Amino acid sequence: MVTPGCCGAAKGHVPFGKLLLLGVVTVCACFIGGALAGRSAVKSRGDGDIVLVGPPASPLHPLLSLAGELDRRGQKVTVLSMKGGLKKAERYGVAHLYEEIGDYGVDELSDKIEKTLNNPGVSFTASFRELAPMLAKMSAALSDGFASYIQRRLGAGRGVPSLAVVAMMSNGVMRKCDQHGIPFIISHPTVAIAPVFSALPYVPVIFTGVPLTGKTFIQRTFNAALHTVFGLVLPLVGYPVEFLDPSAFSGRPRLIHSFPGLDYPRHASPLDMYTGPMVTRGQADPSKIDEKDRAWIAEGGGRTLVYVSMGSVMELDVQTASSFIQGYARLSVGPQGCEGLAEGTVALKETEKGPRFFWALSGRQQKRLGLSTAESPDEGAISLSESDIQCAKNLADRGDLRIVGWGATPSMLALPETALFLTHCGGNGVHEAVFARTPMVGVPFAGDQQEVCARAERAGVMRYVYRGDLTTDTLEKTLRSVLTGSENIGKPGGGVVSEPYLGFVEAVDRLERLSRLYGGVSTAADIVETFLETGNEGARLLAPPTEKIGVNRLEMLWCWVSAFCVDVILALIVCAFAFGCCLGKGKCSRRRGVKVQKAISGTTRSGRRYLNLALPANAEEAEQQMSGRPPDPAALQVQIDALQAQLQQRDADLAATQQAQQQLTQQLA
């Protein structure tokens, strides 16, 4: 025999009340244990020292500028990165602050990744899928190197750093900072890059090509669906790539090295702190340009200069490089281009020459493409055609083209002769161009580059051509759409300025003036020094209700639910449904009463009322019949008596009518 337990539970089952009590106790124990663990994890801190951590790629550049400014202010600063970052530190003049913490073991892109990125028709989503494993490996290696660095400090009795500034794609380092109780700030190039971009539903998701304004209904639906995936699905199932996971960013100050106007304007969290371009006047000093390069620029006599740099990570494929060289030739010497140079039919006067091109192309790529004058391409390597190589040589001999292994981009863009920047739309390069007030033409390759191009074009400072559509004709057309094909076009002081080109110059000038509102490197240093003093408590004061330090996936889900007011919407739907049910039930009851009353009595066409004896005489009898109970004999007798009375009355009325009719007939006779 089974004995019922509490709340209807059978014997042998745990009652619901006890389960609820057990759950509450477990949750409280987890919170108390986490607090004690966090308290015990806090190590002794260093004497106000700051570490800046990032991979040896473009995210490291803002950190190097920031390190120089903090060092000038007398702060104790250490820059931590992996093999390859030292050269960048030397160019920024902060090599004495640099410490190498390992090597992620990938000196060059794998063959598969290189093949994918060198395919002009590859989508940005596909390129991201190929790059993601390499980025994950790099992030893991950086995290391991940072953990070893902390252990060395602790072993030497130095304690942990007082503050860390961690570049994006370094979520593993952020987790290590949490474990050791180190307050940290995130260094983020633009809002275009995840996970900051997913904060608001009207901001387009990267890689989709959806505009900020003027979306169609389908685009809005698609964008909302993607935000739902990022905000609702991925927090539950996990993120495919660690640096997409926004939980490490939650509740932390974020230095965003951009500014509204170039970036998409949006409602930002107080923890999203724009700094503007991380470039200093010293970095844009022309004296940083190599002496031989300065001499070549001077030989042009003030002719318009186009600076070309596609970055150091992406490899140019043969088709893209060929389009570049032939496009250079068409703009420099005229429509005949490379063919005219080869046939010797080009004989232009100095004043008729078009722009000159200064091309920063790594030595490795020069060798691979066959453009290096010092080294021959490797045996079996796929290089440019002989005609393209000869065309580049002819342009160089005429003084229209110079190819170098590296160029000081801020200094080159700041030259009065530089009228245009041909770029791959890297976040650093675009902001350096805005700082130097130089219009741009973009050829995005992979990652966030197309998103950065779209933002710059929206601001009116760029035209860009998708790499899959890149040909000699499209490149020439796009370059001319900015330069307008006028002779000797350049900046003020560098030549004659055309009316359409002035529109780009004015647009980039407005953008540069807006960027000053955010202070640049100086403001970034001020923010770092502020959180050096206030730590995590300062971040907590600035965190909105949807953000807090140590957020987990369920809390992230609740943040998404709160941001979209999903709980409020569901509550309104439930209330409306319940109200509708109650209202419908009331209407049905009223209709039922009316039908019963109509069934009990009625009227004839003459207006005389009658009693329908086939139906119940009142509501009580109707309810009795509907319930299936047998009728009361007394009630039936009453109905019979009433019927007999009606029949008698009808007979009396009929007899009276007949008598009156007979009397009337006699009178007439």
From TrEMBL:
The chain crosses the membrane at residues 19-37, 557-580. Keywords: Glycosyltransferase, Membrane, Transferase, Transmembrane, Transmembrane helix. CDD domains: GT1_Gtf-like. InterPro entries: UDP-glycosyltransferase, UDP_glucos_trans. The keyword Glycosyltransferase applies. Pfam families: UDPGT. One of its GO terms (molecular function) is UDP-glycosyltransferase activity. Gene3D superfamilies: Glycogen Phosphorylase B (3.40.50.2000). This is UDP-glycosyltransferases domain-containing protein. Coiled coil: none annotated.
